[in-house]
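Final report, section 2: Outcomes. Of the targets proposed, Phosphinothricin acetyltransferase is the one most frequently requested by collaborating groups, and we therefore present its record in full.
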Amino acid sequence: MDIIEAQEQHLSAITQIYAHHVTCGVASFETEPPARAEMRQRLEKTRHAGLPWYVAVHEGRVRGYCYLSRYRERHAYQYTLEDSVYVDDTFRQQGAGIALLSQAVAWAEQHGYRQLIANIGNSENEGSLRLHARAGFTVIGTLKSVGMKHGRWLDTVLMQRPLGEGDNTLPQTI
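The predicted structure is given below as tokens.
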């Protein structure tokens, strides 16, 4: 499996993977799958912010993706990022998630970021909880019943992972 930067030719697969999670699952709190054009805008926004968007390619097919975004826009949050990881439902438990997330963590550390947040859709999302724990995240808290999808209330679980020296030292300017 190769982990590479997402490109235009990957957008159809990215859109399809995400659409499945939106329509069939609760990892995303979106209720309507975005069109390919919207996913292109999201990819461009990520790139414009100078942040990575990776895809996992196995046997010529995109099997998952991961991108980093600013945790919050205010200046004080400048050293904190948030990750998003989605894997093709037919390729779960094949190592794509950890490979993607590990690449994103390495990138963030190399670029001087200090904290990485995971906002996991629903407290029953055992796959994402295990993935993030395996990547060094710890549960910080659970926001109870903050979403409504598929006729039921959903939680979000916040997980956090220090990057590099974390909060042990003050960072140099990014």
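Helices lie at 11-24, 36-48, 96-110, 126-134.
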